[in-house]
Amino acid sequence: MSGTNGQVAHLDAVEKPERGLHSLTVRDFRNIESASLSFCNGLNLVHGENGSGKTSLLEAIYCLGRVRSFRTHHADQPIRYGQSAYQLVGQIVAQGGKLLPLGIERSGTGLTVHFNSEPVRRLSDLAGNFPVQILSADTTSIFNGGPRFRRQTLDWALFHVEHSYRELWQRYSRALRQRNAALRTQSATRLIRIWDEELLDAAVGIDRLRREYLEELSVLLSTELVALLPGMEVRLRYQSGWPASITLSEALAANLEKDRAQASTQYGVHRSDFQLQANNHEVSGHCSRGQQKTLLVAFLLAQVRLQHSRRTPLGAFLLDDLSSELDVLAQRRVLQALQELGVQVFVTQIAGDSVDPADWGEFRAFHVEHGTVHEVL
Asked: Are the beta carbons of 116 and 101 closer than 8 angstroms?
């Protein structure tokens, strides 16, 4: 893949960033035929008319960090019409200012990922190198996106801040696949239970780390809401994925015949979920759309603050059409918080002057028109 030759570049003392995405090359992504861009550590403004390709640029950055889109579940949909594949090649800033190449090629038949010239076989191996958060009208909310979305949100967050989590998650996933395979083939009970020990051992660690993370996140979330939604009391409620009255070992044993009938494991951390409650009510039924957006912003900011407190890479924060998603007060608070944390920020806007970059030490502006992106000097 072009651009992933494994050469590790170093920035000079003046330009040396400590976070985020240094540069990006895009080929045949949405309506962007070709673009090669370099970004600053601070505020990166992307402006242009509706339909010009602003959101597509943010989507490409998001795909680089998560290897999936925030706009669609169809992996090949972002491929430019009439083309067979898209390519994304970024230079990610690592510890000490090293630039490490990250390349993704997605075709209609498969996916190829390279990081620092090495092929990536498990996407979880990428976690922690380039964390990325997105606020967009297309973003599925943590309030109504379903348990699977919330588990993915929780897993990616923990990949970034807890080094042991990835190994536990891989062990659990492997044991779960093997147990389900034994269930599908109607294997003897003793053969199914061989995998229970590994499953249970990994599940205990995952469950503990998830609970600790959400407890810490809940404190930071409440702090964010003091400024954004004064008087709103929130809590994050975690559900393990099995009945609270029994252990997972007991749940697996009691449910074995049902698992056989359905050929899959019904209880475990792969069934866990969490809810955000506001003033002791579920957010989706209690809060207005505007309040839900603000709560989502607070949730994302709290995640970034937690990353900052753990001294993990901050990555990038993507804000798509900020003025349509948040009121003026919330916009100011979000940008101020991100600036204080030192997060690399990408903001799209229709008008070129709706976000004032005066308070930012570093900023760059880009204009998008009919899929063509160029820096405004």
From this structure: yes
**Is 351 among the domain residues?**
yes
- Separation of first and last alpha carbons in the chain: 31
Where b means 16+ CB within 10 Å and e means fewer, 44-75 reads bbbbbeeebbbbbbbbbbbbbbbbbbbbeeeb
Q: How many domains, the chain?
A: 1
Residue scoring higher pLDDT (3 or 69):
69
Helix (H) or strand (E) holding 291: helix 289-309
Residue 97 lies in a domain: yes
Q: What angle do CA 41, 50, 52 make, to 5 degrees?
A: 70
Structure tokens at 132: 């990325």
Domain span holding position 93? 1-131+313-377
Q: How far apart are CA 177 and CA 73, in angstroms?
A: 23
Q: Dihedral of the CA atoms 150, 152, 157, 159 (nearest 10)?
A: 150
DSSP letter at 79 equals B
Upper half-sphere CA count for residue 2 (Cβ side, 13 Å): 8
Q: How many CA atoms lie within 13 A of 197 on its CB side?
A: 4
- 163-216 tens-digit pLDDT: 899 999 999 999 999 999 999 999 999 999 999 999 999 999 999 999 999 999
Residue 319 lies in a domain: yes
Residue 300: name the closest of 195, 148, 157 by CA: 157
CA 42 vs. chain centroid, Å, equals: 20
> Which residues fall within 8 angstroms of residue 323, CB to CB, at 6 or more apart?
331, 349, 354
User: pTM for the whole thing?
Assistant: 0.85
The per-residue b/e assignment along 141-159, b for 16 or more CB within 10 angstroms, e otherwise, is bbbeeeeeebbebbbbbbb
Instruction: Encode burial over 297-311: b for 16+ CB neighbours within 10 A, e otherwise.
Output: bbbbbbbbbbbbeee
Q: Are 115 and 100 in contact (CB under 8 A)?
A: yes
- The answer to the question of residue 333 being in a domain is yes
CA distance 156 to 193: 29
**What pLDDT does 180 receive?**
96
For residue 137, count CB atoms less than 10 angstroms from its CB and return exposed for 0-12, middle for 13-18, buried for 19 or more.
exposed
Secondary structure class of 10 (helix, strand, coil): strand
CATH for 41: 3.40.50.300
